[in-house]
Amino acid sequence: MIAANLIAAAGGSFTPPGPADFNLPPVFGEVTKPMILLTLSAVFIFVLTYAMARRAAIVPGRLQFAGEVVYGGVRNTIARDNIGSEHYMRFVPYLFSLFLFVLVNNYFGLIPLLQFPSFSRSGMAYGLALLSWLLYNGVGMWKHGFLGYLKHTCIPAGVSGLMLVIIVPLEFFSNILVRPVTLALRLFANMFAGHLLLILFALGGEYLLFEANASVMNIFGGVMSFVMFFGITVLELLVMFLQAYVFTLLTAMYVGGAVADEH
Amino acid sequence: MEGTLNMLGYGVATIGPGIAVGLIFAAYINGVARQPEAQGRLQTIAILGFALAEALAIIGIALAFAL
């Protein structure tokens, strides 16, 4: 806020960053930077988990220990607590890969030279949410049958009579249509907004320090801008982890709701 | 400075979900403080409530860009 006022006061031709800054030019052909980052993350995760599991020992080494902490966390606190001890093991591979994939892609936003969270392009997030949507609906239909699943997901226990007319469309709208969209947009909007904030403070600080006329206020604003840049980076470290966690947790909860027995 | 009024409207619209998310986690912290062994069960409910409340803000951001 301070920086924005100072920029207005400086009177120069500062153009604030906007959504257009995320339309990166293609690197070659039709291939853009987010595509390369997604591929890179898949390769990175494969190599990392392979190295963790390659020499699995009873007394784990450092790398294996780190892998086991992440795997154990996803398996116990995310999968088992939300899906239930009967079915959870068959979903752990998907949830574990999902968590690592989102986490690594988010942290690409803070690694120098890469510095672009892949999911700040909405298309990438929609693709990932579509996978989760297909999974939990597919699992529900496998468990209850097509009509049984629709009944299971649209009619909450203990509702009857006239209330059904109101509740059934609402539940269908909320559980089938809105869930994948919010799942994708939550991840996208958080990554997008965080990265935009970083761009804003970096560009604003650079402009105030090196391009605007060198008054005390401008220099102070520029320095404060870079201090804020650092602060937002630390906040982003937390947010990026949290978004990966929430995405995986919600997928597990949706799957858990789909495979739950009748009330 | 340029931009659309949509963004100002979106800023106002996030007040509701913001308060809602705060209330949900306040209740969650209260619950865990009173009964620490219920944390696992409360956490699931809190995250679900958080996701539902935040969905309003997310629908808002979609509409702010679309309309």
From TrEMBL, chain B:
Listed InterPro entries: ATP_synth_csu_bac/chlpt, ATP_synth_F0_csu, ATP_synth_F0_csu_DDCD_BS, ATP_synth_F0_csu_sf, ATPase_proteolipid_c-like_dom, F/V-ATP_Csub_sf
Site note Reversibly protonated during proton transport applies to: 54
Main localization (coarse): membrane
Q: Where are the transmembrane segments?
A: 12-33, 45-66
> CDD domains, per this entry?
ATP-synt_Fo_c
Q: What Gene3D superfamilies would the database entry show?
A: F1F0 ATP synthase subunit C
Q: One Pfam family of this protein, by short name?
A: ATP-synt_C
Superkingdom of this protein's organism: Bacteria
Stated membrane topology is: Multi-pass membrane protein
Key words, A-Z? ATP synthesis, Cell membrane, CF(0), Hydrogen ion transport, Ion transport, Lipid-binding, Membrane, Transmembrane, Transmembrane helix, Transport
Q: Where in the cell is it found?
A: Cell membrane; Membrane
Looking at the record, the residues that make up the V-ATPase proteolipid subunit C-like domain are 8-66
Entry-linked NCBIfam families: ATP_synt_c
Q: What does this protein do?
A: F(1)F(0) ATP synthase produces ATP from ADP in the presence of a proton or sodium gradient. F-type ATPases consist of two structural domains, F(1) containing the extramembraneous catalytic core and F(0) containing the membrane proton channel, linked together by a central stalk and a peripheral stalk. During catalysis, ATP synthesis in the catalytic domain of F(1) is coupled via a rotary mechanism of the central stalk subunits to proton translocation. Key component of the F(0) channel; it plays a direct role in translocation across the membrane. A homomeric c-ring of between 10-14 subunits forms the central stalk rotor element with the F(1) delta and epsilon subunits.
Q: State the family named in the UniProt similarity comment for this chain.
A: Belongs to the ATPase C chain family.
Q: What PANTHER family is this protein classified in? A: ATP SYNTHASE LIPID-BINDING PROTEIN, MITOCHONDRIAL, ATPASE PROTEIN 9
Q: What is this protein called?
A: ATP synthase subunit c
Name the gene for this chain: atpE
